[in-house]
Amino acid sequence: ENHQNREQLLAGKKVLISAGPTREKVDPVRFFTNRSSGKMGYALAEVAAELGAEVTLVSGPVSEQVNHPRIKRIDVLTAEEMYEAMHANYANQDIVIKAAAVADYRPKLVHDQKVKKQDGNLQIEMERTKDILKSLGEMKTNQFLVGFAAETNNPMDYGKKKLLQKHLDAIVINDVSAEGAGFEGDTNMVTYLNEAMQQDEVSLASKREVATRILEFIDRDMKDE
Ligand code: CTP
Ligand code: CA
User: Binding site annotation covers 161?
Assistant: First the structure.
């Protein structure tokens, strides 16, 4: 009967998730990206769908695949495209989770032709991308908004700051320097921190199990509001 309850946990809820890295072009053959595999975001999407939610998954370029019929996947490449897709789908969502690793900078100039090498050093000027999560926080109506924080040092301090500065309802703090946590692997270990500054530790487990715990905390905190 526990199984039955879990299947119904998010029944009828609309959940918007972003996952994976973004890709910022330099020229037709080169781009900047990061180590995100998308696995945590995809695990959240899959488990949310299994728990009854109707999921929209905005995905950067990853090798992960979705099978669940209640997941609608929207593929994007750049931070700008992710911004557009998240905002286009933001209204009427119950839960929004930003698990994506968005590029903070992109090349200021994108070359139409391949850049040829020359003697000496190359400098590429980078400009800031939009902070998608912060903009979603500023426009929040009824969505329960959850961010991720990927940190290598002082994870709790930086995580708390992001929760406040981006107007989040909760943040999943990921110490990516910890053994078994972070980018490419199939496991993770996180701290879930909500607006009331309540901390829940999720010890090392598969990304699917971590996703289940995160969704249970979210469900609990939505009921408390
Ligand atoms: N995020 C975003 N748009 C950006 C940068 C980050 O939506 N341009 C989101 C991420 O998806 C994540 C959260 O903000 O949910 C925190 O991302 P993180 O990289 O840890 O923090 P930043 O605010 O970018 O700060 P910094 O990289 O300097 O630690
Ligand atoms: Ca960042």
Answer: no
CATH architecture of 2-104+125-224: 3-Layer(aba) Sandwich (3.40)
Strand (E) or helix (H) holding 42: helix 39-50
**CA 74 to mean position of chain CA atoms:** 14
- Starting from the edge strand earliest in sequence, which strands make up the sheet with 14-19, in order? 71-75, 54-59, 14-19, 95-98, 144-151, 170-175, 187-194, 199-206
Ligand nearest to the CA of 21: 1
DSSP 142: S
pLDDT in tens, 18-63: 999 999 999 999 999 999 999 999 999 999 999 999 999 999 999 9
Residue spans of the domains in the chain: they are 2-104+125-224
172 lines ligand 1 (CB under 6 A): no
- The CA distances from residue 6 to 11, 50, 120, 218, in Å, are 10, 9, 60, 13
Pocket test for ligand 1, best of 36, 82, 104, 174 (most atoms within 8 A of CB): 104
Angstrom distances, CA of residue 85 to CA of 18, 67, 89, 98, 140: 9, 21, 6, 12, 16
Beta-bridge partner residues of 206: 187
